[in-house]
From TrEMBL:
Transmembrane segments: 39-61, 87-120, 132-156, 186-205, 243-266, 299-322
PANTHER family noted in UniProt: PHOSPHATE TRANSPORT SYSTEM PERMEASE PROTEIN PST, PHOSPHATE TRANSPORT SYSTEM PERMEASE PROTEIN PSTC
Chain spans, region Disordered: 1-26
Family: Belongs to the binding-protein-dependent transport system permease family. CysTW subfamily.
Name of the protein: Phosphate transport system permease protein
Name of the gene: pstC
ABC transmembrane type-1 domain ranges (all copies): 95-322
Membrane topology: Multi-pass membrane protein
PROSITE patterns with a match to the protein in the record: ABC_TM1
Entry's localization field: Cell membrane
């Protein structure tokens, strides 16, 4: 019987050829490129925060003259600025129009996007699902100006009879009351165009979330005698709830900041109106800035930047709300 010496402490037992593999000390776990990569990743994370802070500081610094200006000074410098109106009262209708268009688009796009995502992930044949998923992803690459042209030249004439029908038969409902736009250039048409624009985002994210549903959950539901829809309702949707909320919030962020499509379709107005079929009632912040910035100067530029600060705060609040909702729903999503 041969007795072999045990290797020194800090060394592994001899390998198959008698070589001793030295163990790395805990302080040597990051060397060379590993340490460089860690600093690059840390710098990238810090860069995001720095950019966000820089944008916020720019908006506050350049918008501060308008925030502190008197209504008389704003009326002298800003075109179409009503007399004796504060900046908050002036920006209020723009915030209302922005939120109204974005929420309507989200209400239209979210159910359709979820339906398409479920069809691709659980109902369509594999070849059809791959092709349809590719086409949905391509919709996100279409420039917004193309959507604007399509909405103005194609969609508005198509929807105009629908809006007239709603105005004649459903005018008892407050959203469809009032005089229907003769050209179809209303907030309702803008909402439909925005819904089409955010549909690829909601569909793509929801599809990937639904595909991550554990197969054991689905097979267990089917083994208990559930139909395909019951399996989706009891296993897939609870698991993907937080992901669908994240997808909807991403779509909402896109709808809040959309500019060209809204500018090309909507007849602008500065009112708090819930009449979706009327023209000249609403305007969004992004479209207002794009329309007035080329001819603005002096305090008018500061007013536009202050309006952009309002949009920045709204977008930040929406994303923070989304993170809070997802964090609350995470433990109930079925992922555990």
């Amino acid at each position: 019987m041969t007795i072999t010496d045990s290797p020194p402490s800090g060394e592994a037992p001899p390998g198959p050829r008698g070589r001793v593999v030295r163990r790395r000390a805990s302080g040597d776990t990051e060397r060379g490129f590993s340490r460089i990569f860690r600093w690059i990743a840390t710098g990238a994370g810090a860069l995001i925060l720095a950019v966000l802070a820089a944008v916020a500081l720019f908006l506050i610094a350049r918008g501060w003259p308008a925030i502190t200006a008197t209504p008389a000074e704003l009326a002298d410098s800003v075109p179409r600025y009503p007399d004796d109106t504060s900046l908050v009262a002036y920006v209020g209708p723009l915030v209302f129009g922005t939120l109204l268009a974005a929420v309507l688009a989200l209400l239209l796009a979210t159910p359709v996007g979820m339906g398409i995502a479920l069809f691709i992930s659980h109902y369509a044949p594999r070849r059809l699902a791959q092709g349809l998923g590719y086409l949905v992803d391509l919709l996100a690459a279409i420039p917004s100006v193309i959507y604007g042209l399509w909405g103005f030249l194609v969609l508005a004439p198509v929807l105009k009879p629908v809006w007239f029908w709603l105005g004649e038969n459903a005018s008892w409902f407050p959203l469809f009351a009032g005089k229907v736009s003769a050209t179809g250039k209303s907030i309702a048409t803008v909402a439909v165009v925005l819904a089409v624009m955010v549909l690829p985002i909601i569909t793509a994210v929801s599809r990937e979330v639904f595909l991550q549903t554990p197969k054991l959950h689905e097979e267990a539901a089917l083994a208990l005698g559930a139909t395909r829809w019951e399996m989706v309702r009891t296993a897939v949707l609870p698991f993907g709830r937080s992901g669908v909320i994240s997808a909807a919030m991403l779509g909402l962020g896109r709808a809040l900041g959309e500019t060209m499509a809204v500018l090309m379709i909507l007849s602008p107005g500065f009112t708090y109106s819930l009449h979706l079929l009327e023209a000249g009632n609403h305007q969004t912040i992004a479209a207002y800035i794009a329309n007035d910035f080329p001819e603005a100067s002096g305090l008018a530029v500061n007013t536009l930047i202050a309006t952009g600060l309002a949009l920045f705060v709204i977008t930040l609040a929406v994303n923070m709300l989304a993170r809070w909702i997802v964090a609350r729903r995470k433990e109930f999503s079925g992922a555990n």
